Amino acid sequence: VAVVTVGSIHAGLKNNIIPAEAKLELSLRYPDDEARARVMSKVERIIRAEAEASGAEKTPTITTDHTLPPTINDPDATSRLTAAFRRAFGEG
């Protein structure tokens, strides 16, 4: 399980002119390094395939600005909080 968020897209200055380049900024959330590697591989595959399918003259440049380790919640604290929420708000 992972989440890919499109945080921003920057391309062109006019709605009727095809821009020479576009910048897509993503954010990934993942439970472990293995999931991160799988998601990154799929994102890169999709970006390259879309560029090729559209006839882009240049191969996309894919860069990683920063990477943080996955957030892993403490199992005991999560269990206690989940139980408290169920008592306060009910199931679901």
pLDDT average, as an integer?
Answer: 93
Proportion in helices: 25-40%
Strand runs, count: 2
- Computed structural class: alpha+beta
List segments where confidence is low: pLDDT < 50 over at least 5 consecutive residues. Answer: none
- Major sheet details: 2 strands, antiparallel
Radius of gyration: 19 Å
Q: What is the chains' assembly state?
A: single chain
Report the total helices: 2
| Widest beta sheet: strand line-up | 1-2
Described by the principal axes of the CA atoms, the overall outline is elongated
Q: Would you mind describing this structure in some detail?
A:
This protein has two helices and two strands. With 92 residues, it is α+β, with helices and mostly antiparallel strands. It has one domain. The chain has a two-stranded antiparallel sheet with strand order 1-2.
Question: Helix and strand layout, with pairings?
Answer:
Layout: E1 3-11, E2 22-29, H1 33-53, H2 75-89
Antiparallel strand pairs: 1-2
